[in-house]
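Researcher: Please translate sequence to structure tokens.
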Amino acid sequence: MRVLIGYDGSQCADSAIEGLARAGLPDNADAAIVSVAESWLPPPVSSYDIVGSDATALPDATARPASLEKARRWQIEAAQAARIMAEGAAERVKTVFPNWQVNAHGCFGSPSTELISKAEAGEADLIVVGSHGRSLIGRLILGSVSTRVLTEARCSVRVGRDKSEPEGGPPRILVCIDGSPGSYAAAASAANRQWPEKTEAKVLIVRDPITPTAVGSLLPPVTQWTADFNDEQKAEAEQTIAPAIARLQSAGLIVHGVTRAGDPRWIILKEAEEWKADSIFVGARGLSRIERFLLGSVSSAVAARAHCSVEVVRTA
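Model: Translation complete:
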């Protein structure tokens, strides 16, 4: 397994690394710790700025403005500092996974662009980022870097969070199913991990029941048809999660299957928090897929607002 961890020295980035101990990751893997110093080059100067007010002077084609030289020196120093920061994070990863091959990288540029490009170049299976960077605004707002990586990466992305309550006992994972190939891929990804004994998995499907109008509720045929439809829908939901339950049980997990009714975005968040899940596994796209790399609205909302870590699974 190849893992890329984006690290910026923030508390959220530290929490993302700490949470990997309860993510079911293998004992042997290749990990790249990437720290990016965010920077831009100044805009090019005009010929007038180079030669000054003397219109008869010719600009030296080899001249390099002092501002540009200063910016380049700063970038080199920033990249070196980023590498030192990444090396510190690499040591922390090695304490959790002593058998991993861990490399540290420091660079400058756009953090989201660098993480995505390095993940593609290294054919990463999983990108790990913190929920917020140093520009943290609030707990329920996903950071701009994490949002872009989550949306545009071609591989699975794990948004790590520090749980509000101390960890205890085996891990608990919430696997969300909606009948789409992406949701079954999320279940398969969770099943393929190396979980400790007594790890619990809850397989959740959220259905949208029909409620009769005020007038319809007064008509026995309408109420009967509504009840029959909702019963059929619940039975179909139970059949839909059955393959995921079987897959996770075959991996040795203690599995519970549940169906809920309502808006899947809020039901998933509520279920995870009340059950005290360590991680949520969701597919990148649901049944309303528009294009291959478009992040589904449910996955996006869950990743942005969950109290725990969220893994959005993509398949090649």
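Researcher: Any highlights?
Model: The two ends are 14 Å apart (CA to CA).
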